Records
---
Amino acid sequence: MKMTLLLLGGVLLFAGIPGCEQLPQVRVLHDPLTPAEHVTLGQTYEMQGHEDLAAREYRTALTQKAGYVPALIGLGNVAFAEGELEESETYYRQALAASPEDPGANNNLAMLYLTRGVNLQEAEQLALRAVAQAGPLQPYVLDTLAHVYTQQGRYKEAVAVLDEAVATAPLEDRFLRERLIRSRNELMEMDSPADRREPTEPGTRSSPQRLRDQSAKGASI
């Protein structure tokens, strides 16, 4: 793979048959993968824990197509996983500059703010924008919005949003549905009224749901 990457877009010289009066043959190798395919490969590496290889694929996609939103989101996700939150925010904002309504970029930036415990009002607006555009990602972005409300101490609204998330979650995704139901039940079981409880401590959600732009894979969750 390393040798192949070194040769992509390069020039190889092949000598002619010995004894023949032929000029060297020049072959230009082109990257056979599209930007979307590089992002898909990057996502595979990322899921396997190979963030360095994932970042390489995302950057390659950007060299082929500047401002490619799925690749920017991917780099933001890698930076997030490595704890580089300022760098992650930069990539998500670049993605939003290119596509302001993108549900993945809006959701992920909202989750980043939740993790840092800052800009909760902006996080709410980002999550609401993601919900409006989410499509098949709806239960995931609703989960993000519920966490925003929870951190703001708006527990009743969080429960209502989680109810909607459960209703829109695919029946076959048992893990997602169980997680949403568990979160909803925990909120409903709180003893004191929702509007009298203190918000949760900032940064308590250590593993945010990071959405990937599904246009890169041509598939839905």
Note: The beta strands are 11-14, 25-28.
---
Amino acid sequence: MTKPKIQKQNKARPMLVNMNAPVVQAEVAKVVGVTKQAISAMIQEGKLPDGKTTGEMIAAYCERLRDQAAGRLGDVPGGLDLVQERAALAREQRIAQKMKNDVANGVYAPIGLLSDVLGFASSAVVGHLDQLEGLLRKSCPGIDEEIMTVILRVIANARNEWIRSTCKIVSDKIEAMVDDDEEGDDSDTPVLMDELTP
């Protein structure tokens, strides 16, 4: 019976690093297991601070690794990290769901639909107001022309003011919505119906 050969393990001497010594990027790279160029690039990109001692640099590198592993830090300096991305996505999903619910409940409607409805309503009102002269002459055949002129002038002024104020309310609301959401498409953007009331 032959004995299995036991390989001798190469016992390297532990690396001793003076943590209080001024930073030497090559030493930090050797300790953390990356190249000197990688450490230099991280410093230039702002991912690592330009520490005063080797210990500070190694501690900063380890802190960065912990933050990346925990999902609190992205690869892009100043960019959104995983937690922020998830929170932003959840917020947008919550807003979209609320809008769908409001549309289903009849609280919101697309601007195009509201414009069409308002146009039809305006046409109907104007059409009825324009028929008042004939109805007044038929209902009150002996009405004085001066009185008829005053009545028609008051009705015309009321009609014109109604159209003007309605247009102003709609345009103000649309401008406010465009200011709030610069990147949205106006044609399909829902409008809160309560916002259109004066």
Note: Helices lie at 25-32, 36-44, 54-69, 82-104, 111-130, 132-139, 145-180.
